[in-house]
Amino acid sequence: MSVLAVVEQRMAGEVLAAGQQFASSLGTGIKAYSIDHPYTADAYAAAVEQLIRKVNPMLVVFGHTYQTRDYAPKLAARLGRVLIGDVIAARLEKGNPPVFVRQMFQGKFNADVRVAGDGPHFVSVQAGAWRAEGSPQVEIFSPSSATSRQVAEPPFREAARAVDLTAADIIVSVGRGIKEKENIPVVEALAQALGAELAASRPICDAGWLPMDRQVGSSGQTVSPKVYFAVGISGAIQHLVGMKGAKTVVAINKDPDAPIFEVAHYGIVGDLFEVVPALVEEIKKAKA
């Protein structure tokens, strides 16, 4: 029994990283495959079913993408299983039933889901919840036959955003600690001094203080900059899954127990209205 990772180009590294963690925790091996067949939900459900019967995995891991959400529930139901979707973490120990943590109600709550019985169990992992490392070694699987009642359509494309935070090397992100819209320029000055993109947590965008296309998190953009400044951000899991790919995280928060410090590489405990202007001045001096 092994862990089977079914990868798409969009999340190949993250799915493989999650699969490797699951396999290591369960004391088993991992096998990664990509399906060589034009996509339709019917065809992929049939193709992955063939692959499962070939590999006989304990656990099947997908990326939580539009394509997976289209065909994986059909596949799981065909095999008499359920799909545990939108997984952001897992607790796995050899000899114990796996427990997966998934988000509910648009990220307002987390639920622990314990699987029981024989596999295969089906899990889709959220983008940004696992950091992609290296280039995945993936085997191509060509199904013997995968007939479909459907006609393939062009791949789903998200609407274009005015701001593409995924391309930014440095991001300065602001949270509720900014208190009110009129204080946004305090953090904007730091972004300008660093040549960074300005971003925000969900409450800031929901309030209309910054445009929605600057939101980082589970319902916003998933980013992986070289440096990520989290200013006045407590570190709720909905935000963390959007920025966990950052190479270096710098947190500024007056609460020393804020969860953001658990993932930060550098932390400053202090009032952002004192810390940020001081940083801006020092950056300007260094550039002079």
Please summarize what this structure is.
Helix content is 28%, strand content 24%.
SSE class: alpha/beta
Helix content: 25-40%
Poorly predicted segments: none
Average pLDDT for all residues: 87
- Strand order, sheet with most strands: 6-5-4-7-3-1-2-8
Describe the largest sheet: 8 strands, mixed
- What would you report as the Rg, rounded to the nearest angstrom? 21 Å
Q: Which word captures the global form?
A: elongated
User: What is the distance, rounded to the nearest whole angstrom, between the alpha carbons of the first and last residues?
Assistant: 61 Å
Number of strands: 13
The count of helical stretches stands at 7
Strand proportion, as a percent range, falls in 15-25%
The secondary-structure element order is EHEHEHEEEEEEHEHEHEEH
3D architecture notes:
This protein is α/β, with parallel strands linked by helices. Helices cover 28% and strands 24% of the residues. It has seven helices and 13 strands. The protein has an eight-stranded mixed sheet with strand order 6-5-4-7-3-1-2-8. Strands 10-9-11-12-13 form a five-stranded parallel sheet. Helix 2 packs across helix 3 and helix 4 runs parallel beside helix 7. It is elongated and about 65 Å long. The N and C termini lie far apart (61 Å).
